[in-house]
Design a protein that fits this description.
flat, alpha+beta, 375 residues
């Protein structure tokens, strides 16, 4: 495979000067073609970004430095990227004639390099855009994109270690897997393999709610209704919720127990749910005959084996009590939020009027001063 690579510590050559040393972090970006003819990009980060000079971007995309400069200028003029967020000056020691001179040089971060890649007209630019299109297509079709090779081999000897977000990936997968809708679908598929499963049976639906309560107690010591009943509070910030779907808390958010959990409780619940689903799936894949009533016993045994608290009753708060409490608290919370927004709007209007009045007074004073000078 062929590759264009540039370490920040390397010495880029130009016609007029030579960079011989710098304080730039030693990261790199690789754009190459794999054996099957597909384009691939790899980045070697220091922290969560990397920095490239215009000369390094020119070499990466196989264009001239003036071409890179022109594209950057247009990107900043169009507002596609912002200078303050993408440019950083590094002190570079350069040879000018017989002298070694330290001068600040503009370096550009990964956002700027990617933006230039979308604009350059070169074979390497086309290769980059083909790679980017493949990633975007996979994201739109599947809902995710993974760099399998990087995740399998997070450390590359002799090269700056890339940031390893594998634990974050696992945590996000656990959270998705433990979401109510996703877990319901998975549990339904598992239960469907029970010898006596019938989706129309009332106990099949009821057991899902019982299972949720058992898992919540194992993670937090409280059932789902108890969590909602105890933590829904109109006077608390965001009504006591720690998670919600859109930009602000809506009525549909306040009835879900998981939305009131702390980060630590969510992580605990996600781990337990993940282990339980793996256990249940293993039981079904081994083709063991299991009846629906057996799953309750198996869940209790699973929780005891993992030293978790096991719920043996219906809990202290019913589902209806929790829903009624959440509805009442939300009505009070929504009223307070409306009042605050109205007051905030009035305050902004007053400030705007005061600003206009000051501008008018300044203009009037300037006009009076001009008249006096003429007189």
């Amino acid at each position: 495979m062929s590759a264009t690579r540039r370490k920040h510590g390397d010495v880029p050559q130009t016609a007029s000067q030579e960079e011989v040393g710098s304080a730039v972090p030693a990261g790199e970006i690789l754009l190459y073609e794999t054996e099957d003819g597909k384009a691939r990009i790899e980045c070697r980060f220091v922290g969560d970004t990397l920095w490239l000079s215009q000369a390094q971007m020119a070499e990466l995309f196989q264009v001239s430095v003036p071409t890179v400069n022109q594209h950057l200028r247009h990107l900043y003029e169009d507002g596609e990227i912002l200078p303050g967020a993408t440019i950083r000056k590094f002190l570079i020691v350069r040879r000018e004639g017989q002298r070694r001179v330290s001068r600040p040089i503009d370096y550009f971060n990964l956002d700027a390099a990617l933006a230039v890649g979308y604009r350059v007209h070169s074979s390497r630019g086309i290769q980059f855009r083909q790679w980017a299109t493949d990633q975007l297509r996979e994201y739109l079709v599947k809902g995710f994109v993974l760099d399998d090779e990087r995740l399998k081999h997070p450390v590359v000897p002799g090269i700056a270690t890339p940031p390893d977000h594998f634990d974050e990936l696992l945590e996000r997968i656990r959270d998705i897997r433990a979401s109510e809708a996703r877990m319901y679908l998975r549990v339904r598929d598992i239960f469907a393999l029970s010898a006596d499963y019938d989706p129309k049976r009332a106990d099949a639906t009821a057991f899902f709610a019982i299972m949720q309560n058992k898992l919540h107690v194992a993670a937090t010591g409280k059932t789902a209704p108890e969590l909602v009943f105890e933590r829904a509070d109109h006077a608390a910030p965001n009504m006591g919720l720690t998670n919600w779907k859109n930009g602000s808390v809506s009525k549909s958010d306040v009835f879900t127990a998981k939305n009131y959990l702390t980060r630590e409780e969510i992580a605990e619940l996600n781990r337990i749910v993940g282990m339980w689903l793996d256990f249940a799936e293993d039981q079904t894949r081994r083709r063991k005959e299991i009846f629906l009533k057996d799953w309750g016993t198996k869940l209790d045994e699973f929780l005891r084996f993992n030293d978790r608290e096991v719920l043996t009753n219906a809990g202290k708060v019913s589902h209806e009590q929790a829903m009624e409490k959440a509805r009442g608290e939300y009505e009070l919370f929504a009223a307070r939020r409306r009042a605050w927004r109205e007051a905030e709007g009035e305050r902004e209007n007053v400030q705007a009027l005061e600003a206009v009045a000051r501008d008018l007074e300044d203009a009037a004073q300037t006009k009076r001063g001009t008249r006096r000078r003429k007189a």
